[in-house]
Amino acid sequence: MPTVSVPPSFLPLSAFVRSPMENLRKAVNEIAYAHDHAKLSPLHRSILPVLSLASSLYSLALSLRRSLYGLRLFRRHRLPVPVISVGNLTWGGNGKTPMVEFIALWLADSGISPLILSRGYAGGDEAKMLQRHFLGRSVKIGVGANRAATADSFIKKYGYLDPSTFVDRLRVETKAPSHHSLKKIGVAILDDGMQHWSLERDIEIVMVNGLTLWGNRRLLPRGPLRESLNALQRADIVVLHHADLISEQNLKDIELMVRGIKESLPIFFTRMAPSHFFDVRNINSKKPLESLSNTNVLCVSAIGSATAFVQGMKKLGAVYVDQLEFSDHHMFQSTDMEMIKKRLGELEEKFHSKPVVVVTEKDYDRDPDILKRLDPFEVLALCCEFQIVPNRGFTEDGFKKLFKEILELQLQGRMQN
Fold first, then answer.
1. Which of 57, 58, 30, 55 is nearest to 44 (CA)?
2. Whole-angstrom Cα distance, residue 5 to residue 120?
3. What are the two backbone dihedrals, phi and then psi, of residue 266, each rounded to the nearest 5 degrees?
């Protein structure tokens, strides 16, 4: 069952009915982002020893794995094309997939056919969304846990561009490539690739959720960290996501924190800018953002971090914004739809008007049909544009220029070896 975010005076009985697994997930998440454990409930504190033990075991496994790669007992696979890793240090909500899409579109428009390598969580909702966005583009998407094997199968099928051609095309972005060359793979992009050590990479881009950062700075499962913050030393570029929702002082503090780990790291700011909605019953419909003015909204999401999604809805002029948050990648079931409809009925009775349901594109692509069961309520999917926010010379053009410079140096090193 989901977590419900509503005023204390308006909590329906259904809000307190959760499965044991959902209660555990919620408790672990609250512990991970609590900076003062003294304020945790007795129930939360009771599971801290178990989480601490699990984190210690995870740390040992992480250290062993790192050593095995360092001693070359585990082999790292090198693809014949440049590899771009877009990853993070924490679970969910860091903007990895939007950054992957941004890079892939830019490269495709430069005449370079990218191959996106996705693990494919929960039936591949992110991969499905990207596939829809890339219709008519020279972008390929490979889904599978063994991303080296997935990449090899695509390269065997389509062939690949010589790395020197890659550099030439980035230098002359307006060059129109032949249809034949677009079939060949020019670059591989690892979606959620920072901890995927089995593949060598040429650029390491690390995404950071500016709203939640690194929580209590503990390793999984006591905290949200997949690795210690020292792993930022491997990064070539750090991207602070949701920068538009963070105060200027907090942005400066985060920059100082990151540069305390690696002083030379370039830091870019990004945001998700809402552009329009579409009705889930008609994907070709396009509704302006003003559609939410003077309405009551129920945000329904199963994403890594729903905070930015809900905050964005509050800025669009809705009279009241309610929230139902499910676990990341949750597959909606018929029982979920019934519970959502019950919640909508409660909102309708309270405000004497039909509320509107808003979901993210990722939630839509996970199962486009099940959301239609919420009739007669209107269900809209929010579309957003990933944008690099200019900040003291760190602009979109600056990002692309730095990207080219790093790749050119890496490819020169490849050819010399």
1. 30
2. 29
3. -75, 135
Q: Spell out the SS3 assignment of 350-386.
A: HHCCCCEEEEEHHHHHHCCCHHHHHCCCCEEEEEEEE
Round to whole Å and give the CA distance between 355 and 357: 7
What is the Cα–Cα distance from 60 to 44, expressed in whole angstroms?
A: 24
DSSP-based three-state secondary structure for 174: coil
179 and 54 in contact (C-beta within 8 Å)? no
**b (16+ CB within 10 A) / e for 378-390:** bbbbbbbebbbbe
State the Cα torsion 75-79-80-86 to the nearest 10°.
-140
Residue 333, sorted as left (phi over 0), alpha (psi -120 to 50) or beta, turns out to be: beta
Residue count of the chain? 417
What six digits make up the tokens of 349? 């009775």
Who contacts 214 (Cβ-Cβ below 8 Å, separation ≥6)? 89, 90, 223, 224, 225, 229
Q: Are 48 and 39 within 8 A, CB to CB? A: no
Q: How many CA atoms lie within 13 A of 404 on its CB side?
A: 18
Q: Which residue has the tokens 């809209």?
A: 380
Cα(372)–Cα(378) distance, rounded to whole angstroms? 9
- pLDDT in single tens digits along all 417 residues of the chain: 343 334 433 443 334 345 677 678 878 888 999 888 788 888 889 999 999 999 999 999 999 999 999 999 999 999 999 999 999 999 878 999 999 999 999 999 988 999 999 988 655 688 999 999 999 899 999 999 999 999 999 999 999 998 877 777 776 655 445 444 578 999 999 999 999 999 999 999 999 999 999 999 999 999 999 999 999 999 999 999 999 999 999 999 999 999 999 999 999 999 999 999 999 999 999 999 999 999 999 999 998 878 899 998 999 989 999 999 888 888 899 999 999 999 999 999 999 999 999 999 999 999 999 999 999 999 999 999 999 999 988 999 999 999 999 999 998 887 776
Distance (Å, rounded) from C-alpha 137 to C-alpha 134? 5
Report d(CA 242, CA 385) in Å as an integer. Answer: 12
Q: What's the half-sphere exposure (Cβ side, CA atoms, 13 Å) at 78?
A: 5
